[in-house]
Amino acid sequence: VSTSHLQLAAFALGTTGWILCTISMGNVEWRVWHVDNTTIISSGIVWVGIWKVCFISYLHVSPGYKEQFCRKFSGYDFSIPREIYAAQGLLLIAMFMGLLGLTATIFALKNIYMGITQKTLITRFFLLSGFFYIFAGLCVLIPVSWNFYSVTHNQSIAFPPSYYLPSSPVAQEAGTAIPIGIVSVILLLLSGTFSLSYRFPVTANTIVK
Questions:
Q1: What one-character DSSP code corresponds to residue 1?
Q2: Which residue spans traverse the membrane (predicted)?
Q3: DSSP reduced 3-state for 175
Q4: Helix, strand, or coil here: 66?
């Protein structure tokens, strides 16, 4: 048990990183656009996520009442950059890989704390969890980096007319999903490193299987 403190920390970090990955995936604020035409976009702000785009409009309901208008990205909208759909897939993979990493870590820690001294089994599951965590972290890193690059270079998106959006903003900034994703990447990579660093104590009375 005394040799698995880092792996226990890996479980805590991996759990937090996985939760943050899930939060960032569902967050619509990846890129925050500022537009000058407020005829339809009443607040002048558009939130561009990886699943949908949203803005506040007064035109769809009674005056003085805010309504958030959202449009989900469809695979039939060929003007939407393919990177958005790639980001969707990568974050789904990251969530699944992170869950596998947590499961492998729980199994290995359970064996340790129950006094089961099967060296090969415990070591393999820590190696598996480390691989899953690191792979999940890299899957989150790609869409986070791409969105951050798009923000810093003020890249545009040719939205279809039904989205009621201009093709480019006056300015844009990183939304809350990006820093959440960055923290998730750091925690998942640390968790993976800690899991891979496990060394079974050579002085223990082991049953090698």
A1: -
A2: 6-28, 40-59, 84-109, 121-149, 169-190
A3: coil
A4: coil
CATH fold label, 8-197: Butyryl-CoA Dehydrogenase, subunit A; domain 3 (1.20.140)
What's the CA gap between 19 and 28, in Å, rounded? 16
CB 116 within 8 A of CB 207: no
User: Which residues touch 163 (CB under 8 Å, ≥6 apart)?
Assistant: 53, 71
- How far is Cα 86 from Cα 72, in angstroms, rounded to an integer? 15
Give domain limits for the chain.
Answer: 8-197
If you average pLDDT over every residue of the chain, what do you get? 84
**DSSP letter (8 states) at residue 161:** G
Task: Output the CA torsion 161→163→166→172 (10° steps).
Answer: -160
pTM confidence score: 0.84
Phi/psi of residue 175, each to 5°? -85, 180
Closest to 101 in 3D by CA, of 136, 124, 127, 133? 133
